[in-house]
Write a structure and sequence with these properties.
- The complex is a heterodimer of chains A (162) and B (288).
- Chain A has a five-stranded mixed β-sheet with strand order 2-1-5-3-4, with helices on both faces.
- Chain A has two domains: 76 residues, Beta-grasp domain (Ubiquitin-like (UB roll)), CATH 3.10.20; 71 residues, DNA polymerase, domain 1.
- By secondary structure, chain A is an alpha+beta fold.
- Chain A is built from five helices and five strands; from the N terminus they run ββαβββαααα.
- Chain B has a five-stranded antiparallel β-sheet with strand order 4-5-10-6-7. In chain B, strands 11-12-13-14 form a four-stranded antiparallel β-sheet. Chain B has a three-stranded parallel β-sheet with strand order 1-3-2, covered by helices on one side.
- Chain B contains twelve helices and 14 strands.
- In chain B, helix 7 crosses helix 8, helix 10 runs antiparallel to helix 11 and helix 11 runs antiparallel to helix 12.
- Chain B has 288 residues and is an alpha+beta fold.
- Classes of the chains: A alpha+beta (162), B alpha+beta (288).
- Chains A and B meet through strand 4 of A and helix 2 and helix 6 of B.
């Protein structure tokens, strides 16, 4: 009985998916293994590091702390959903690229997704607010200063678009 | 880490959920936001055979006011409560505690009632329940009951809820006039080594009621009546705060662990208690 799969319908980066999944599997594994969206990274796999952060119905969440079946009916955005179809980077991606906001870059997808939620709700955060909002994402290279710089660059880039 | 196998249930109503809990009892765990249960399963600290996912039960996702008390249903997520004007107005101590719970990506999934039912002794929300004399509302397939927060928490990760019961909602008590939650942790967003939820009522510059509920110092959150008594009837000035602080360090007997020695915890309990009075008086949002 434990081996039964159940049907799951969700939208990921604008595409509808209907698949069968084992209930024990977390969302990050289903994104990576079943949908081949390997940009969502798994660091600690118990909710501490933030590398697997994705947007669930617009809100940032740990894809490792969610059963995939809990995403039934949800709209999910992963790192692969940020750039335009022609490869033009999202302004947050462009800003972090410009500011060199990464060293090994393993944590980068999670930081990007958290930053996108932050800047949507608060387009001109203070440095303190940036640090608070990104406190749930860990960088083992400890490159936090350049990450905060990247977010501040994104604030400037996105501000100049308005 | 991967979760151990289980049988997944997705009830569409409270009654259906209660029937499942009646059938599977000790072998079942309720899944709401999953931000406590799923790490427990990932780390194999628990491996329930049945998961009852209450995420589709719409009637549990409501915040309402019942008999002048704020009632928060079992599927109300931290982030929703944090942004709710009703919570800010009716349960300001809960509002003050919420930014301390995990991180934003945790609060967008985790639930208020889940944090309470999980009963982590180092967590903020059980202390908020004690400080506000909250009432925990439980239902099983055969009965409903309401338990005062003071009688609900039984130990670390343990409550008096039976395995066939669902905590359907929590009713928070009457607010005071001044509130603060102050905690000390190794890293921002980590569980506190020591923290306190403080609710005061001040009329004509005199403290008429005080609640100080500490977390991270015992097997449950704990109120210190002697410290509260040291404040009542005073102006909450420096002398009153000093005697309150002495009472805290006298009464609390925290354990030491890898994060902090017992003596350090006891000292910091006094420090956060004093800071919480200052913060409450200045109506400051507690900085972590």
């Amino acid at each position: 009985m434990n081996d039964l799969t159940i049907p799951l319908t969700m939208q990921v980066n604008g595409t509808d998916h209907s698949i069968d999944v084992e209930p024990r599997r977390h969302l990050a594994d289903v994104l990576r293994e079943d949908l081949a969206l390997t940009g969502t990274h798994l660091g600690c796999e118990h909710g501490v590091c933030g590398a697997c952060t994705v947007l669930i119905d617009g809100e940032p969440a740990r894809a490792c702390l969610m059963l995939a079946v809990q995403a039934e009916g949800s709209e999910i955005v992963t790192i692969e959903g940020l750039a335009d179809a022609d490869g033009t980077m999202h302004p947050v991606q462009a800003a972090m690229h410009q500011a060199m906001s990464f060293q090994c870059a393993f944590c980068t997808p999670g930081f990007l997704m958290s930053t996108i939620a932050l800047l949507r709700d608060n387009p001109s955060p203070t440095t303190e607010e940036i640090r608070e909002e990104l406190s749930g994402n860990l960088c083992r290279c400890t490159g936090y200063q350049s990450i905060v710089d990247g977010v501040e660059t994104a604030v400037e880039l996105m501000g100049s678009d308005r | 880490m991967k979760f151990p196998p289980f049988t997944y249930h997705r009830p569409r109503s409270i009654e259906e959920a209660l029937d499942l809990l009646a059938e599977h009892g000790d072998d079942a765990k309720v899944l709401a936001g999953g931000q406590s249960l799923l790490p427990v399963m990932a780390l194999r600290l628990g491996r329930p055979e049945h998961i009852v996912d209450i995420g589709s039960i719409v009637e549990l996702a409501t915040i309402d006011v019942d008999d002048d008390r704020l009632r928060v249903g079992a599927m109300v997520r931290h982030a929703e409560a944090e942004g709710s004007p009703r919570v800010a107005e009716r349960a300001p101590l809960l509002r003050a505690a919420l930014p301390h719970v995990g991180h934003r990506a945790i609060r967008s999934r985790g639930t208020v009632v889940g944090s309470i039912a999980h009963a982590d002794a180092a967590a903020e929300l059980p202390a908020v329940c004690l400080a506000t004399n909250a009432e925990i509302e439980l239902r099983s397939a055969t009965q409903s009951r309401t338990i005062n927060a003071a009688d609900f928490f039984d130990g670390h990760f343990t409550t008096v809820a039976h395995s066939d019961e669902l905590v359907t909602s929590v009713r928070f008590g009457t607010p005071g006039t001044h509130h603060a939650v102050i905690e000390q942790s190794r890293r921002h967003g980590d569980y506190a080594m020591v923290g306190v939820a403080c609710q005061l009522t001040i009329a004509d510059a005199i403290v008429t009621s005080a609640a100080l509920a500490f977390f991270g110092v015992s097997s449950t959150a704990v109120r210190v009546a002697e410290a509260e008594a040291a404040l009542i009837g005073t102006d909450a000035g420096p002398e009153a705060i000093a005697s309150m602080r002495a009472a805290v360090t006298d009464v609390l007997e925290p354990d030491g662990d890898i994060h902090a020695t017992a003596a350090y915890r006891r000292h910091v309990a006094g420090v956060v208690a004093a800071r919480s009075i200052h913060a409450a008086l200045h109506n400051e949002e507690a900085a972590a």
